[in-house]
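Researcher: Next entry in the queue.
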Amino acid sequence: MTSILYFTLLLVALGVILALVQWIMVCQAKRTEGSKAPDTSVIDNPGNYPLRVYYFYSQNCGPCRSIRPMVDKLRKQYPNLIKVDIGEHAQLARDFGVAGVPSFIAVEDEVITDVKLGRVSESWLLKWLAK
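Model: Structure for this entry, 131 residues:
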């Protein structure tokens, strides 16, 4: 009986630790909102868009692979959705304060206006892209 209780307490403690780590990552990512966006001339698509959404991803990230079809579909219609591989552009990811992948960062008039860590819905992405 006591071993079951200890095992349950261990699982609860691990769950709390994981939730705390995720909360810290989200807070770290949100910290950049309202700050000036770093120079992105290396990766920006041709054209001067006042609003851009940067999608930071990794080739070996499972959640990134699962949303890739949605992102690729929307990129055909919205050239202001810009994919950034953190393996190729690690310094840019650090400059943006990317805490994990996938991350979506909306930049409007050179200011970071919204940061989403993890998967986003197509409606959230369209809301930002269609502005």
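Model: Residues 49 and 111 are 13 Å apart (CA to CA).
Researcher: Noted, moving on.
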